[in-house]
Amino acid sequence: MRTVFPSPEVAPGQRPPLSARRKTSCEPSFSTQTANSLAMIIITRPDATEEQIQHIVSRIADWGLRAEVSRGEMRVVIGVIGAEDKIRQKPLGAFPGVESVMPVLKPYKLVSYEFRGTASRVKVGDVVVGSKEVVVMAGPCSVESEDQILSIAQSIRDAGAKILRGGAFKPRTSPYSFQGLGKVGLQLLAEARRESGLPIITEVMDTKDLELVAEYADCLQIGARNMQNFSLLREVGRTQLPVMLKRGMAASIKDLLMSAEYILSEGNFNVLLCERGIRTFETMTRNTLDLNAVPVLKAETHLPVVVDPTHGIGIRDFVPAMALAAVAAGADSIMIEVHNAPEFAKSDGEQSLLPKDFADLVRRVRCVAEAVGRAV
Ligand code: PEP
Ligand code: MN
Q: In this predicted model, what pLDDT tens digit does every residue of 205-243 receive, in sequence order?
């Protein structure tokens, strides 16, 4: 059985049931596709009426195909997905109100910009990612203790962050490094959410932990090392929880888009893509933050783009410059690691900002955001 996540770990009244939280305003009208499915887009006329659009959608459903309606400023685009042989026989262009019909030729179909013809917004708790506002996510690399996470949550919220990050299941290069507090870490995150009011994003590393992590997280993080863990991608695609997919350190932009396609193809359109640095020949920095990816992704996909300059450069003093550059390049959100005592951090202390430096960064991010027509 999929997507049945009972909530035994959570006291009644403490959290709304997952079944309720899984429904968001970005809820798709899709279910699982087959291997030989085809995507078509129906572009309606600017003067198409609501009745005409509803008529198209219901006929598509009658044919056993799926329709995804996207309302842009000028017109409505209806994405159609289903088995290729079935779709090809249907007279999609014959409906009143239709201007043109075309196949999505890109290998990433549901993810491609043209499938929706407008940028998607993804809700994490009550926070919208993908609007004019650049959303700042922040928090420690790992959740370490109650004092640590509560103190950091409060300081980042006061500085202007909108989403709290923190790892409970940590993907570490060495099996001897701190692996995270697991379920206790999730409970501490839930407490920090209650105290701060901030929604939380945390990593799920393995399908076996998804049920547990989904009970606590407002947004699931898929880490760089798992970007091509296709069974995990499919499983998170069967929930309706927002998912932030991080680019693998040796993955091309196209690889990232294809991995996102796995999640959408299971019916979950609530996906954020995160550039977090790739491996290059450079040794002076931890990774090379590929800001090229930001405008390329914004052109290729309707999904919001997050940049993680912390892992991208890996050196505290240089994080602010790359965070500002990410916003200038068009990121919809940035994710920054912050620690109240980085010298004692159990992971990634060397790249974590102190709360006061983070507050200073948010002030500067606000100026850059305004300069490029955004807000914080
Ligand atoms: C993290 O966000 O702490 C993390 C482990 O990121 P990545 O998967 O990008 O290395
Ligand atoms: Mn980290």
A: 999 999 999 999 999 999 999 999 999 999 999 999 999
For residue 319, report the distance from its CA to the centre of ligand 1, in Å.
Answer: 15
For residue range 338-375, what is the model confidence (pLDDT) as tens digits? 999 999 999 999 999 999 999 999 999 999 999 999 99
Which pTM was predicted?
0.90
Is the shortest distance between the CB of 182 and ligand 1 below 6 Å?
A: no
What spacing in Å lies between the alpha carbon of 138 and ligand 1's midpoint?
13
Which residue is closest in CA terms to ligand 1's atom 6?
223
Looking from the CA of residue 347, the nearest atom of ligand 1 is: 3
Could you tell me if 217 and 200 are in contact, meaning their C-beta atoms sit under 8 angstroms apart? yes
* pLDDT band at residue 33 using 50, 70 and 90 as cut-offs: low
For residue 23, what pLDDT is reported? 41
Q: What would the mean pLDDT of 176-196 be, rounded to a whole number?
A: 97
Question: Does ligand 1 lie within 6 Å of residue 246's CB atom?
Answer: yes
Please state at what angle helix 293-300 crosses helix 253-265, rounded to 10 degrees: 40
Residue 248 exposure: Cα atoms within 13 Å on the Cβ side: 16
- In contact, 92 and 98? CB cutoff 8 Å: yes
> What CA–CA distance (Å, rounded) separates 5 from 211?
6
| CA gap 51, 54 in Å, rounded | 5
Residue-level length of the chain: 376
Q: What is the number of the ligand closest to the CA of 249?
A: 1
Predicted pLDDT at 15: 52
Strands 135-139 and 163-165, how do they pair? parallel
